[in-house]
Write a structure and sequence with these properties.
The protein is mainly alpha-helical. The chain is 65% helix and 3% strand. It folds into 2 domains: 357 residues, no CATH class; 111 residues, no CATH class. Strand 4 and strand 5 form a beta hairpin. Helix 1 runs antiparallel to helix 4.
Length: 508
Amino acid sequence: MLTKPKLGRWYISVLCCALVLYVVSCAPGALWQDSGLIQYRIWHNDIEGFLGLAISHPLFYILAIGAKYIPLGEFGHRVNLVSAIAAAVAVANLFLLVRLWLGKNLPAAITAITFAVSHTFWRHASIIETYTLWTAIFSAELIMLLQYTKTKRVGYLYWLGLFNGLAIAVHMLASIPFLCYAVFLVFLLVRKEIRSKDLGIIALLWVIGALPYECLIIKNVVQTGDVAGTLASAAFGARWQGEVLNTSLSAKIVKENLLFILLNLPTPNILLFFVGCFGLSKISPSSGFRNVMVGLILLFFIFAFRYTIHDRYAFFIPFYCLASVFIGLGAHLLQEGINRRVFVYAVLVFSFLPVTVYAAAPRLAEKMQLDLGTRGDVPYRNDYEYFLQPWKTGYNGAERFAEEALDSVESNAIICADSTTVAPLLYVQEVKGKQPDVKIVYGTVSSENAPQLNEETIRQLLGEVSVYVVSPEARYCPACVLDNYPLVRAGVLWRVVEREKAGRQIAD
């Protein structure tokens, strides 16, 4: 058995290895789509957001805004590193969890490596996102739960309450563990293993941890007077109630979900997951801990599997986290039964196999012309590489597009952006200070004092300034433009022209 100092050194070693991996793979600057909008919110010190309270993630933004003010490197890289550092902590926490549980380094290392190189988690560690910080806190919760079941010291439950409150303040995914812990605590109270006073302290610490989120809820109730509407926003965001509560599945969704899982665990070690599941009762420190672990992995799997939003692949991260633990348990059980050095080497090699799969996947998918379900018309972004390789080392496609777009338009021009491109355009304009007179227009966020773009205003605007769009496709171009005006290619943008002018250009 390792002493505490030696265990601490192992933890630091795993943390440093994961940190090197994620820092090297971290994107250096501006990002597309949701990650770019996260950068936009951080730049504007926006803790609440604009898509409903469930998408506010206040604790994450408080920490990321703090990182914004550290005078080292570029703003974009600095805040992207928040995800990388949190991801490294999550990986080290999983190592510690399994090491404390089983007392062996091999299963702990297998768990840490499996999760560290799982595609979706690694990808989110390379860009600015909320999920890695949430996972770091969730893994700390599991450590506290394990330590309580092993020692029966109620202080660990106090920490569990605090950590779950903090997790709620990062992401509402924490409501699933909250339900499992609540049931567990009720059983402990009924069995008189904890007192009502202990439960009260746990609840108080949970409230303290969740305070950033609770303050936003209270603030919105006071401002709007709409309690029901505010609570709905806190639970589902602005428009995702149907997706969150969805109970139907299609063959397409099932197929995609299975492919997501295969992409994250493309290794024979996935078979160890089933070994870990079947052997859990033999090595669990208590029936209560076992039941919570089973409940967590089932609930997270079911929640993500029947979710229908376009980026639901990210909601499988908690499942991959727990699946990695079960894979570590499976490695431990088989090692105990086989006790062969060849098995250890094979499992370790297979743990790193996903890295080679991700390296080869883009070229293979492009050769096979696989449909990734992405738009495919974004400049300086090869979707096969961008989505199939989790690392973003040196990637500057978003910034390159935005700089070229802003350099190519006239003074006081209008660029009508979409959800993918608006963030890098605003990033380069506001962070880099390029073309501040150009107005970038999008439904959710726009440049300061940007005009409204609709059928009534577009004609007047065309008579005064140049107007551009980023795509001629219906999903990404306003109908008031696409239905009424021709588009002429202008570098990475498309210029909107009046029909009579377009006719003269064609004639010339």
